[in-house]
Structure formats: structure tokens, C-alpha cells
Write a structure and sequence with these properties.
Length: 121
């Protein structure tokens, strides 16, 4: 089992920087990928950013250039930096963890409880 605890959500004005953090505990694998998804009411949960164990990253087109992601050396913490948030970034942000199998499947996948981010003037 892996537990994910998110922190850093809240209310920010457009253009005001925000950092989200997620701490993984339990049976954290050195091969895991960790990242962030977001969801607004009535819409599907969507990818924001993800970072693999070897520190490769992928971003959604809607946030590319406005966010960055990193993981600590041990790989237990993943941070999302929102550099220039806009109102459309308002959503509940969820931390995600999974271990990729040899054939590319996502196994042992876990989700955090989510943290609300509201961007408004």
C-alpha cells in the first residue's frame, strides 16, 4: 500500500505562483511515476504533469510553459509549481502514483484525496 498526502492548495490571484506538494509513504517503489491530475465538476479528471522515476516529464498542452514539476532525490515527494496560474486552472488537484509494468501498464496505482486550487481576482 502507498499513501499520498497533498498540500499547498488554496486561493491565488492570476499570475501569483503556487506550489503543490505530495508526499508518498508506505511501499514506495524506486520505479514509480508520480504526478498531478485535476478535475472540475462535470468533467473528466485530466493530466496536468507527470514525472517518471528517471525524471522524464510530460505536461498537458493546457499548462505547458506555465507549470513545472520535480521530485526529491528519494522519489517520495513530487512538487508541482504553477508559475502563472489563470482562472481556468481552478480545479481539485489530485496526486497520482503508479508503477509501470514491463509492458507499459499502470500497476499499483494510487490517488491522493485532492486539494482545491482556486485562481481568481
Amino acid at each position: 500500500q502507498v499513501q499520498l498526502v497533498e498540500s499547498g492548495g488554496g486561493f491565488v490571484q492570476p499570475g501569483e505562483s503556487l506550489k503543490l506538494s505530495c508526499l508518498a509513504s508506505g511501499k514506495v517503489s524506486s520505479t514509480s511515476s508520480m504526478g498531478w491530475y485535476r478535475q472540475v465538476p462535470g468533467k473528466q479528471r485530466e493530466l496536468v504533469a507527470v514525472m517518471s522515476a528517471d525524471r522524464r516529464h510530460n505536461f498537458a498542452n493546457s499548462v505547458r510553459g506555465r507549470v513545472s514539476i520535480d521530485r526529491d532525490y528519494a522519489g517520495n515527494t513530487v512538487n508541482l509549481y504553477m508559475h502563472s496560474p489563470i482562472p481556468e486552472d481552478t480545479a481539485v488537484y489530485y496526486c497520482n502514483y503508479y508503477e509501470p509494468s514491463i509492458d507499459g501498464q499502470r500497476v499499483n496505482e494510487y490517488w491522493g484525496r485532492g486539494t482545491q486550487v482556486t485562481v481568481s481576482s
